[in-house]
Design a protein that fits this description.
Keywords: Coiled coil. With about 140 residues, the chain is mainly alpha-helical. Helix content is about 85%, strand content about 0%.
């Protein structure tokens, strides 16, 4: 190979590897037929192909791991939400029990008051006045 051919080969290598203006280093590395870096070779060797396959395999593995990590994170978030929802349900059930107790106490208190009012005879006149008021409203709507 002549000097001009070596320079032409070096320029082609520079254009391929993107090392524009690398100058004598690239020329010296490619002049002997041994590229300085595997990716700078015009015709990849078996080891370059194996390296590329290995790199692609690693990229695929990384993508798979990222997908598995995303799925695991989604599961963790679902579990957090469900445990949070479970805690909310427990709190609501406790509150419901408290409300039932309050309602029962109110009911018993009203029964005691009504029993006392019935015994004193004060309920009937009040109930009769309420019934009369409802009858008057009904008659006003019809009339």
């Amino acid at each position: 190979m002549e000097k001009g051919d070596e320079t032409l080969a070096a320029k082609k290598t520079c254009l391929i590897c993107g090392a524009a203006g690398a100058g004598d280093d690239v020329t010296a590395a490619t002049a002997g037929g041994h590229p300085a870096k595997p990716y700078a070779a015009v015709n990849p060797t078996n080891s370059d192909t194996a390296n590329a396959d290995q790199i692609e395999g690693l990229r695929t593995t990384i993508r798979d791991l990222e997908e598995k990590l995303a799925a695991a994170n989604a599961m963790i978030e679902d579990l957090k939400r469900s445990s949070s929802a479970d805690a909310t349900v427990v709190e609501l059930r406790e509150e419901l029990v408290d409300l039932r107790e309050i309602f029962q106490a109110e009911r018993e208190e009203q029964l005691e008051r009504n029993t006392g009012l019935l015994a004193s005879g004060k309920v009937w006149p009040r109930l009769l006045s309420e019934v009369d008021a409802v009858k008057e409203r009904f008659a006003a709507r019809r009339g």
